[in-house]
Amino acid sequence: MAEAKVTMNDVNCICYTKGPGMGAPLQSVAIAARMMSLLWKKELVGVNHCVGHIEMGREITGADNPIVLYVSGGNTQVVAYAEQRYRIFGEALDIAVGNCLDRFARTLEISNDPAPGYNIEQLAKKGKVLLDLPYAVKGMDCSFSGILASIDLLAAELKANPEQRDPLTGDVITTADLCFSLQETVYAMLVEITERAMAHVGSNQVLIVGGVGSNLRLQEMMGLMAKDRGGNVFATDERFCIDNGIMIAHAGLLAFETGFRTALNDSTCTQRFRTDEVFVQWRD
Amino acid sequence: MTMAIQEDLEFPCSLTIDLPLPTARLASAAMQALRVDKELSPLVRRSFSTISPTSHSSEETVLRTEYKATTNRMLRVAVNGFMESLGVVLGVMEELDVDVLGSDAEI
């Protein structure tokens, strides 16, 4: 507030994340938000985390009405706007794609600095052997837990036998090849379900939000598909892809300006909060 | 009277936590903020009130939290979680209240 040269009097409302997410951190924030609301005498606005990502992506990129691919450690959804709701066209049926990548980084004992997904991306750049992994697209949805189990198995085999060679090319297999194969597989799946939604809705624009959206290979693959359809991809840098507070404030403010309020006794938080539960009154 | 006794038999392990605060405004805010979330476990009951610190003063500056649980373990788990939440409440009071930030001045 000091940096922005604003005071409490300039603040219109207190926005907080109502969900979805993990219970304990959500509750901590809700308590802090309620206290501030009571002490500062400002109203509360509960915000859906996924809608926060979407609205931040729209604001930063200027994308008008794209299909949104929201991909992170906790969520994987393909979303399109229709009649005052962000409708979920497809999603991960089990674990999020970021979760799959992060857990594989743990298997390989890759550093978490700056992020496990980032380090997998860098390692994948050195890979060239495309190993056989399950490809689990199910209609409009996709599944990652089987792929994770498969790649974990391959990693264990490689650890036991470092001289292992790819049967097709005869090249020695490296952990870089594992990362490369995993990325190519899961990203191709995401591109497919995004394209399916685009065909369904008649859109040729894609907005990628969420932490995994900062992955340049995903942006590249999505871009190739979108270009084939005469469209393009919108993506933000990691400042806005990754979870941040301003996206909650921004989405909350959009709702506040339409008259939306969250009463104190309704300012709970919930681990399950579907993206389409939000009434998007601020759009036509 | 009978209801109270039955409840105690079901929830024999109890703990009352009295938190003295500087003003009634703070005690009331703490109570309102903390009571919104339901207790997670059906084996634990919790209630809040604000009371005066002594029989002489009329200002209700103390936050009273009463916990009842079926077992000591459940009581301990619930109260430990509550302490975390209390920490957040006190932190906001201490660092982000109106007089700390200055409602007219920039910080």
From TrEMBL, chain A:
Every Gcp-like domain range: 1-249
Intracellular or extracellular location(s): Cytoplasm; Nucleus
A cellular-component GO term for this protein: EKC/KEOPS complex
Main location: cytoplasm
UniProt xrefs under Pfam families: TsaD (PF00814)
Catalytic reaction equation(s): L-threonylcarbamoyladenylate + adenosine(37) in tRNA = N(6)-L-threonylcarbamoyladenosine(37) in tRNA + AMP + H(+)
Keyword terms, alphabetized: Acyltransferase, Cytoplasm, Metal-binding, Transferase, tRNA processing
Top-level taxonomic group: Eukaryota
Record-listed E.C. numbers: 2.3.1.234
BP terms from Gene Ontology: tRNA modification; tRNA threonylcarbamoyladenosine metabolic process
Molecular functions per Gene Ontology: metal ion binding; tRNA N(6)-L-threonylcarbamoyladenine synthase activity
Protein name: N(6)-L-threonylcarbamoyladenine synthase
Phylogenetic lineage: Eukaryota, Fungi, Dikarya, Ascomycota, Pezizomycotina
Automatic annotation (TrEMBL), chain B:
Segments crossing the lipid bilayer: none
CC per GO annotation: EKC/KEOPS complex
Top-level division of the source organism's lineage: Eukaryota
Record GO biological process: tRNA threonylcarbamoyladenosine metabolic process
PANTHER family to which the protein is assigned, alphabetical: EKC/KEOPS COMPLEX SUBUNIT PCC1 FAMILY MEMBER, EKC_KEOPS COMPLEX SUBUNIT LAGE3
Protein family per UniProt: Belongs to the CTAG/PCC1 family.
Protein name: Transcription factor Pcc1
Biological source species: Cudoniella acicularis
